[in-house]
Amino acid sequence: MRLSLLVFLLFLWPVLTKAQNENITGKVIGKETKSPVSRASVFLSNSSFGTITSADGTFSLSKVRPGQYTLVVTAIGFTDYTKTVLVGDEPIKLSIEMEPKVIQLREVVISGNKGDWKRNYEQFKREFIGTDENAKNCQVINPDVLNLTYYKTQQVLEADADQFLIVENRGLGYRVKFLLKNFKSDKIAGNISYEGQRLFEELPGNEAQKKRWRINRDLAYYGSPMHFYRALYTDKLKEEGFDVRKLTRYPNTDRPSDEVIHRKIEMFTSLRRGDSVNHYIELSNLSKYAHERIATVPWASFELLRSTQETGIFAITYPNYLYVIYTKKRDETNFKDIYRPLDMPNYEISVCTLFNNPPYSLFDKNGVVVGESPLYEGSWSKLRLSELLPVDYEPSDKPK
Question: How far apart, in whole angstroms, are the C-alpha atoms of residue 197 and residue 388?
Answer without folding.
Answer: 13
